[in-house]
Design a protein that fits this description.
With 210 residues, the protein is of the alpha/beta class. Helices cover 40% and strands 17% of the residues.
């Protein structure tokens, strides 16, 4: 089983704060897992930015995951990809990317988790937990109750895969979420919108590890 960090920081297209700045701050805060999520740039711009981010991650020993853009595989020091499309063919992606590349997916229910696990995903972002402005999502909010229902069912199924809560997770939610049996959390807005980015990241890290 591949190493999966318990706290994922997801970068976002933000006015006044570049993806590179977000990664630098997260790494300074101690981040060991960055998901670069940029859906607004052409391939040449993406590659330039990813290479700059990869250098920062290399300096800090941080895993770099890229959202969607598998066409960048082999062109930069990327350790894995996170596919947001729930209809993505993970069997084909695994053959394309190889066994060494970390591959994550997104699910909204138990069936989605099991499907991803059987198709070769290494981890699953399960959500949305709550309302989020960082990603358009018309799926039913899971809330704590959703994870309390799904995680015991997943354990009973015998499927073993790292499941992370995602979508509108706030610091005050982490303890209750971790008690449901999830592996960790993926966070964006609650960290970048905080008064102190680095302090917010470290608070989340402490809560997840606790």
């Amino acid at each position: 089983m591949k190493y999966i960090e318990k706290l994922h920081y997801i970068t976002h297209d933000l006015p006044g704060i570049s993806h590179i700045e977000q990664v630098q701050w997260a790494c300074e805060a101690g981040a060991k897992w960055i998901q670069y999520r940029c859906l607004s740039k052409a391939d040449d711009e993406l590659l330039t930015e990813v290479n700059a981010i990869a250098e920062i991650c290399d300096d800090w020993g941080t895993t770099l995951i890229v959202t969607n853009h598998t066409q960048l595989h082999g062109k930069a020091d990327i350790q894995g990809f996170h596919m947001e499309d729930r209809n993505a063919n993970f069997v084909s992606l695994r053959k394309q990317l190889g066994d060494d590349v970390t591959l994550g997916g997104y699910a909204t229910d138990l069936a989605g988790i099991i499907q991803l696990a059987n198709a070769g995903a290494d981890y699953v972002g399960l959500g949305p937990f709550d309302v989020t402005t960082t990603k358009i999502n018309d799926c039913t909010l899971l809330g704590i109750e959703g994870y309390q229902t799904i995680m015991p069912q997943l354990k009973k199924s015998g499927i073993k895969i790292a499941v992370l809560a995602v979508g509108g997770v706030k610091l005050g939610n982490v303890e209750d979420l971790m008690h449901t049996g999830i592996y960790g959390v993926a966070v964006s807005g609650a960290i970048y919108s905080a008064d102190d980015f680095i302090e917010a990241y470290q608070d989340f890290y402490d809560a997840v590890k606790r």
